[in-house]
Amino acid sequence: MVCCTSMTRVQRTELSKIEQTRLYPRLTNPNFLVLRARRLIFERWIKSVPGTSLRVLDIGGRYQPYRPLFGNRIKSYIACDILSTGLVDVVARGESLPVRGEHIRCSDLHAGFEYFGQPIEASAQVHRVLKPDGVFMSVAAFAPRFVDEECWRFTPGGIRTTLSQFSAVEIAPETSSIGGLLRASNLWLHWLVRFSWGQKSPRSYDLSLPELACTGTRVRPSDEQRPVHG
Ligand SMILES: C[S@@+](CC[C@H](N)C(=O)[O-])C[C@H]1O[C@@H](n2cnc3c(N)ncnc32)[C@H](O)[C@@H]1O
Q: Are 70 and 46 contacting, i.e. CB atoms less than 8 angstroms apart?
């Protein structure tokens, strides 16, 4: 389904606040370490995508914190999400992308894989729409659960299995084990302060699992013969 919505200035301001917070998190943000590392990893990967007029597909692009990292190299940017905001071009599930095959040079699925009911199907869809030698970037959570909509958690082995159609897979941890423990402690503290001040109920923070690593993946589907490496 293609979607055409307009946005009020208030909505645009709210979305751009979320984007800024994710791209340039403040030190007080309990996810500072992970979000900062994610920006640096994506910056490096996006720089290495060849070409100056890229067709980009953003799955889960309700807001688009990493879009500025492409600079002026974007020819077209299609944002697909199950929720419509003024930034979403196509309301659809990542598991059934209404995009023609071999059309996209670079696809990203930021804060992503854990949301798909059928992650392997989503991976196959991305593989289908990418041009040969196209690049796919994503994150897959290994952290505590944040919202009830999240379905999965991934280990490096799980990511390789999910992306088994792709030839070259690079997995970059977003924090070290110590960083993961620090993040878990930060989340605990953040939660305790908010809860004790009665600002917000903890809702779905499940703090029993420490975050040891998050991952990003990068895939070149044309290179079918190359071995998969970590
Ligand atoms: C945590 S947000 C990430 C937003 C942004 N891309 C980022 O990196 O910060 C995850 C997004 O994925 C969307 N989403 C969840 N399930 C989806 C699905 N099956 N297909 C496409 N988008 C989905 C959600 O609506 C949400 O906008």
A: yes
Report the nearest-CA residue for atom 15 of ligand 1: 115
Give first-to-last CA distance, the chain, whole Å.
Answer: 36
Predicted TM-score (pTM) of this structure: 0.80
- What are the pLDDT tens digits along the chain (230 aa)? 545 456 787 888 899 999 999 999 998 887 888 889 889 988 988 998 889 999 999 999 999 999 999 999 999 999 999 999 889 999 999 999 999 988 888 777 765 778 888 999 998 999 899 888 888 888 887 766 777 888 888 888 888 898 888 888 888 888 766 666 666 666 666 666 666 665 554 333 333 333 333 334 455 544 444 444 44
Separation between Cα atoms, residue 175 and residue 32, nearest integer Å: 11
Distance from the alpha carbon of residue 225 to the mean position of ligand 1, in angstroms: 32
Q: How far is the CA of 52 from the centre of ligand 1 (A)?
A: 26
Name all domains of the chain by residue range, CATH numbers in brackets: 9-177+212-219 (3.40.50.150)
* Distance between Cα 145 and ligand 1 center (Å): 15
Pocket test for ligand 1, best of 64, 82, 113 (most atoms within 8 A of CB): 82
Q: Say if ligand 1 is within 6 A of residue 93 CB.
A: yes
Give the closest residue to 137 by CA, choosing from 53, 59, 32, 81: 59
